[in-house]
Amino acid sequence: MIVHGWGNYSKLDSEVFFPDTLEKLKLNLLMTKSLIGRGLGRSYGDSANNKHIIQTSKLKKIINFDKQNGCIECESGVTIYELNELTIKEGWFVPVTPGSSYVTLGGALASDIHGKNHHLEGSFSKHVLYAQLMLANGEIVKISHSKNSDLFNATCGGMGLTGIIYSIKFKLKSISSSNIIQTTIKTKNLEETIEQFKINKKSEYSVAWLDCATSIEKCGRGLLFLGQHQKDNTLTYKKKKVVNYPLNIFSKFLNSYSIKLFNYIYYHKNFKKKKTNILHINDYFYPLDSIDNWYLLYGAKGFIQYQFVIPLEFSINVIKEIFYKIYSFNQVPYLTTIKKFGAKNDNYLSFPMEGITVAFDFKATNKIKNLIESLDEIVVNNKGRVYLTKDTLMKKEVFTKYYENWDKFEKVREKYGAKGKFFSNQSIRLGLK
Ligand SMILES: Cc1cc2nc3c(=O)[nH]c(=O)nc-3n(C[C@H](O)[C@H](O)[C@H](O)COP(=O)(O)OP(=O)(O)OC[C@H]3O[C@@H](n4cnc5c(N)ncnc54)[C@H](O)[C@@H]3O)c2cc1C
To answer: CA-CA to 199 of 20 to 30 Å: which in 30, 41, 95, 185?
Structure first.
């Protein structure tokens, strides 16, 4: 079958196995010379692409749910959507969630995902009690912060290159409401947006949308969305209505002019400097999940998401330099978001580090490769890095600068027999075979 990442940029004809038991997983793994694990393919590039794939979407068992203490153990194909359906009404929520609920727990751990609360809660692996990993020889090993910790540090954020994550046990977050109190703050430029993140550093959740389709002086103005769990003892689960538009037809109308107009309206329709409203958890965390396959909006060539992080102290100047570079290439990001990260963790390839992270969505054009190369140069020179789960075009020389522990990662892969067995199109490009 044809597989691709969420950006729909690089596509591949692959043999895909869908094991639904541990025994079948082992059988599929042993009968294939080389392969990569895959969840729902919500990573943007080619990290879950290989000629041979084990897709975990049928490994869906909830192994144990301790409703008293909020601990849950699931097979790795369970999605955050399914988890929310089960746990929210019981007063528990995933400790870290990405901007889509259609990701598997295996994919979440392999990317060591972060949410809008990284500044307070770290990334997903922090909340994991242990995971069970299937190695190249079919053996299952338990990994955690204290058990086989080298393999744990390589697997969390390790993009599937150490083995297949079979199951994960982790701690949930206690909530007493399924609603979020959202405060929206309108900012007039990048300086103010970053200042507002600092002022609101105690807010449980924070993320901002940036207008980057305006004049260079105003670029970086935006809307900061702060979130707090309400405490009103109403725990309801609301199924999200998903609409299915023929988005490839609309893609013709998506261009720099329509984006400028959309951004102008979206920014100015918020009259007030600050406003507060109540939203269901689904509407605060997963607004994009309401539209099925929205990546089709970008047309047949797909799109690239470029997410980088820059240390806080020079973030304003570097982000401005990046805005100028994008302008000089005559490109317009169609969607831009920004968050503040807390401290980094011990995992070899986890993305977050203390600083500011920005994600741009660019429609794939002929200029895109050169633009990304220029942006990488700026990010490398300023001690930042780019997120592997969003990457499509990173070069090996740049990767080894972004991720200084890559050689430790390779030693752990060697030790546990993963080299030569688990690789993806991305890892080949990055020199991890
Ligand atoms: C709309 C949207 C918003 C997003 N927002 C965020 C965000 O806020 N924060 C964030 O951190 N990420 C975000 N992401 C990215 C997403 O969380 C990650 O790419 C996640 O890994 C996708 O999970 P998946 O199950 O689809 O995995 P895939 O895309 O299928 O795989 C991703 C990686 O995990 C590996 N993998 C998957 N399953 C296993 C397994 N069982 N064992 C071993 N390796 C495995 C694959 O080999 C691959 O390297 C977003 C993605 C989308 C589409």
So the answer is: 95
Nearest to residue 47, comparing CAs of 401, 404, 386, 415?
386
Whole-number pLDDT of residue 164: 98
Atom of ligand 1 nearest to the CA of 426: 49
CA of 375 to the centre of ligand 1 (A): 23
Minimum CA distance residue for ligand 1 atom 37: 107
- Distant-in-sequence, close-in-space partners of 62: CB < 8 Å, separation ≥ 6: 72, 73, 74, 75, 78, 86
Dihedral angle over CA of 86, 89, 91, 96, nearest 10? 50
pLDDT for 237 = 85
Q: How far away, in angstroms, is 40 Cα from ligand 1 center? A: 7
| Whole-number pLDDT of residue 271 | 79
Does domain 179-394 sit in CATH 3.30.70.2520? yes
Q: Is 30 exposed, middle or buried (0-12, 13-18, 19+ CB in 10 A)?
A: exposed
CA of 6 to the centre of ligand 1 (A): 10
Measured in Å, how far apart are the chain's first and last C-alpha atoms?
Answer: 23
Q: State how far the Cα of 254 lies from the Cα of 39, in Å rounded to an integer.
A: 29
Residues with CB under 6 A from ligand 1: 6, 36-43, 47-48, 56, 76, 98-100, 103-104, 106-108, 110-111, 113-115, 159-160, 164-165, 288, 389, 424
Protein residue with its CA nearest to atom 13 in ligand 1: 98
Q: What residue segments make up the domains of the chain, in order of their start?
A: 179-394
Per-run averaged pLDDT (10 residues), the chain, 433 residues: 94 96 98 97 97 98 98 98 97 98 98 98 98 98 98 98 98 98 97 97 98 93 98 87 75 87 93 93 94 87 96 95 96 96 98 98 93 98 98 98 98 98 98 94
